From TrEMBL, chains A, B:
Binding site for NAD(+): 18-23
Broad EC category: oxidoreductase
Domain 3-hydroxyacyl-CoA dehydrogenase C-terminal: 192-268
Catalyzed reactions per annotation: carnitine + NAD(+) = 3-dehydrocarnitine + NADH + H(+)
UniProt domain 3-hydroxyacyl-CoA dehydrogenase NAD binding: residue ranges: 14-188
SUPFAM superfamilies xrefs: 6-phosphogluconate dehydrogenase C-terminal domain-like, NAD(P)-binding Rossmann-fold domains
Biological classification of the source: Bacteria, Bacillati, Actinomycetota, Actinomycetes, Kitasatosporales
Keywords in alphabetical order: Cytoplasm, NAD, Oxidoreductase
Pathway(s) this gene product operates in, as recorded in its UniProt entry: Lipid metabolism; butanoate metabolism; Amine and polyamine metabolism; carnitine metabolism
Protein name: L-carnitine dehydrogenase
Binding partners and assembly: Homodimer.
Length: 326, 326
């Protein structure tokens, strides 16, 4: 029987509530990792769409390597929310992005799920504090924010609300790691969490450019896949920028490009680059570099770009390092 | 002799003025593509640093495939700007990001370079209109903005200023393509061009988060490399987001996430998602999709993520699709 004490490593039964692109992606991920999955979605054609999504994802998941016993047969689509979570050891909610709807759904899940079972929401940006207000036992409600598709993109951002028990947050982070995800556990709530705030800033700037006729959708996409995107697949924007400072690293980069923070290069106003921020960024880069010298990071970046170009067919196909201008 | 009529395909001699991280990266790229390169930089230890940069890049360039006859021996570091460009068939300026300095340098390059030779600036964001004001023949001055490192990242953004001859802009775009770059030619000046506006928005949001203690440098980097960055290496943010709309594509995504543009997910205010912008984004995605169905794009994205995870050592190393939580 399920008990509040089921260890993250011992979980076998997962419930996925909401089976759209994200919820269905979670279903595919948990199935590939060998879990028994019960899914519920109110849409009339939900099961058909869900199984089509899982079937479409399965070849990729098979190539990545299925867990022992992983099978699409372990998916059960049930007619009610209550049946989905009745014997669940973990619940992932992936309903549409509507605060009232999520608030209501999380309350119903809390009422129906076994005591102690952690319930996570895939919300793209609502703070759990705002979603857990009507639940009877808000302590077990956490945010577990994935990226599309959840069955391939490792990142899950985990953060609790004001009423969330720290143990529930820690349990969720550990469970996701056991389930093969790469977890960032936030100690405070920020709308949009981390990655969505970053990609939302980029997305909004892109929409401004399209609205003003400054760039086309294709130019925006090409500018990323032929440019910064090649680096971001394996080295984040902070360390990447540090390498623009040459042998001087981030400190030299900030000395050189700090003034451009005043330039109208985006509609987003920059913070004041005072000594405290300057020092935080430089010190943070040292932590992120984790002992790697600038020269070592440059070699790592160079090899990474070559590997990514080759892996995505843009090196061998065109030769001479010329990218496929798609 | 050099003449205004040297075709982009016929260029053999390139001058690189400014030999820091970007200028030096250009030198490495042009050498790898088989050009004769003359470089000049006023710094006392410039040649030593430049040759060290080229030596560090050479293994990567060799792995990517050198052009016939490519050799580090084709690099000549000269003591004056005039000697660097005296017989150049193309000039790439990569001086520090200082408007007055670039204005003065471009004027001197224009005075010293053979008639008709196109002179490109690596500026990260200054409009050429502002840089060409003091040059005798501003018509041949264009922006050719690369990404770090120029010898590996394919993208070059090309745009002219108000006084730039359209033929010079077209010549530069064609030359960069011949030289193995992936070119986006802009028909209007926008500060920061395209990719820098996008990554600057992300960078500024990251700085705000660090300044507010909302995330560490490492969390910001990890949130990208374990999340959106894996997709951006081969599929841009627009098409990627279109896939969040499921079988409904971008139209459904905008219907679903449009409201979040009002959410405080980033400090960057979003434009009004009116019908015109909505239609532009949806139509632009159709163009970018270039006939690929949503199902085909999903399969392409999935394979791309797997290829990138494997290429960057995060699939085989950890198995079961678990990413290396770096």
């Amino acid at each position: 029987m399920t008990s509040p004490l089921t260890a993250p490593e011992g979980v076998r039964r997962v419930a996925c509530v909401g089976a759209g692109v994200i919820g269905g992606g979670w279903v595919a991920h948990f199935l590939a990792r060998g879990y028994d999955v019960k899914a519920w979605d109110p849409a009339p054609d939900a099961e058909q769409k869900l199984r089509r999504l899982v079937d479409a994802a399965w070849p990729a998941l098979t190539e990545m390597g299925l867990a022992d016993g992983a099978s699409r047969d372990r998916l059960t689509v049930v007619p009610t929310l209550e049946e989905a979570v009745a014997d669940a050891e973990f619940v992932q909610e992936s309903a549409p992005e509507d605060l009232d709807l999520k608030r209501d759904l999380l309350s119903r899940l809390d009422a129906a799920a076994p005591a102690g079972v952690v319930i996570a929401s895939s919300t793209s940006g609502y703070p759990m504090t705002d979603m857990q207000t009507t639940a009877a036992t808000p302590a077990r409600l956490v945010v577990g924010h994935p990226f599309n598709p959840p069955y391939l993109i490792p990142l899950v951002e985990v953060v609790g609300g004001e009423q969330t028990d720290a143990d529930a947050t820690a349990w969720a982070s550990r469970f996701y790691e056991v389930a093969g995800k790469s977890v960032i556990t936030m100690d405070r709530e920020v709308p949009g969490f981390i990655a969505n705030r970053l990609q939302e800033a980029l997305w909004r700037e892109a929409l401004h450019m399209i609205a003003n006729g400054e760039a086309t959708v294709k130019e925006i996409d090409d500018s990323i896949t032929e440019g910064p995107g090649l680096r971001w697949a394996f080295m984040g924007p902070m360390l990447t920028f540090a390498l623009a400072g040459g042998e001087g690293g981030m400190a030299h980069m900030l000395d050189h490009f700090g003034p451009s923070l005043k330039s109208p290069w985006t509609r987003l106003e920059a913070p004041e680059l005072d000594k405290q921020l300057y020092d935080s960024v430089v010190a943070g880069c040292d932590v992120a570099a984790d002992g790697r010298s600038i020269a070592e990071l440059v070699a790592e970046r160079d090899q990474g770009v070559i590997d990514v170009l080759r892996a995505t067919g843009r090196l061998n196909k065109n030769g001479n390092g010329k990218a496929d201008p798609r």
